[in-house]
Amino acid sequence: MGTKIKTLVSVSLAFLVVGCASTPTNESTMSPTHKWVPSESVTRAEYNWDHSNCIDASQVEVDGTTRSDPTFVAYQECMSERGYTLATY
Questions:
Q1: Class of residue 64 by CB neighbours under 10 A (exposed 0-12, middle 13-18, buried 19+)
Q2: Residue 59, by phi and psi: left (phi above 0), alpha (psi -120 to 50) or beta?
Q3: 86 beta partners
Q4: What Å distances lie between residue 12 and 17, 22, 38, 82, CA to CA?
Q5: Tens digits of per-residue pLDDT, 75-87?
Q6: What three-state secondary structure class fits 71?
Q7: What is the model's pTM?
Q8: Are 64 and 31 in contact (CB under 8 A)?
């Protein structure tokens, strides 16, 4: 039984290492990452609703939009109007 546990641990560690490995990326092809902080406590469903509606209203592209892009500015304004602050971009 000890050998099975060692094998399981070894396989698990291998998957962990492969899963955590990173590859170099070209910043111009990376999708923006955002962190919005709500002014009030919201559920995940409420956030998803607000986020989805603001994406639709602003017609922002999910991939490759820069912070200065007019559609992102409109998206940010929409989220701000709903009580969110952009903490990171």
A1: exposed
A2: left
A3: 36
A4: 9, 18, 37, 43
A5: 999 999 999 999 8
A6: helix
A7: 0.59
A8: yes
